[in-house]
Design a protein that fits this description.
Blueprint lengths: L5 E2 L1 E7 L4 H4 E3 L6 E3 L1 H14 L7 E2 L4 E8 L7 H11 L21 E9 L6 E8 L3 H9 L1
Parallel strand pairs: 1-5, 6-7
Antiparallel strand pairs: 2-8, 3-4, 6-8
């Protein structure tokens, strides 16, 4: 299989994730959390929508910024959706036996800024995540808001 294409800008349309409040639940009396059925259903939607992740482009590595388009008429808070979107873009860790991650970015710790835009015309069950090289971020933001 040929290596994945590396780019300075990667945009992917995803199913709208559940609220982070609905994605994780406490396990009994411990401080541990577990992924809920809502999270697992969303991850399956991501897999069904995007298919073979090895065909997706990858960000070129290094620091990046993230622009997230959410549907304007969605229910709930925008900030409750961004964590799951950011998490799903990263590469799965060796410890993550569920292998949940698109490997568009290597590590979400490289994210330096993000913007959430409530977008007219985006279906209520979808969102768009765009990873932009940190050096290109000011120009990208001006293009989007200009």
């Amino acid at each position: 299989m040929p290596p994945r294409v590396r780019q300075n800008l990667v945009s992917v349309r995803l199913p709208l994730p559940p609220s982070v409040n609905a994605a994780f639940a406490s396990r009994g009396h411990s401080h541990r959390t577990a992924k809920t059925a809502a999270y697992r259903f969303w991850w399956q939607q991501v897999c069904d929508t995007l298919g073979d992740f090895d065909k997706l482009p990858m960000f070129r590595n290094g620091r990046y910024c993230l622009w997230i388009d959410l549907p304007k008429n969605m229910k709930g808070d925008s900030d409750n959706r961004t964590k799951l979107i950011s998490d799903v873009l990263r590469a799965p860790s060796v410890a993550n036996q569920a292998r949940e991650g698109l490997a568009i970015v290597v590590d979400d710790a490289d994210m330096r800024d993000h913007m959430v835009h409530m977008c007219d015309g985006l279906p209520n069950d979808q969102c768009i995540a765009t990873v932009v090289a940190e050096a290109d971020w000011p120009g990208y933001v001006m293009m989007r808001i200009g």
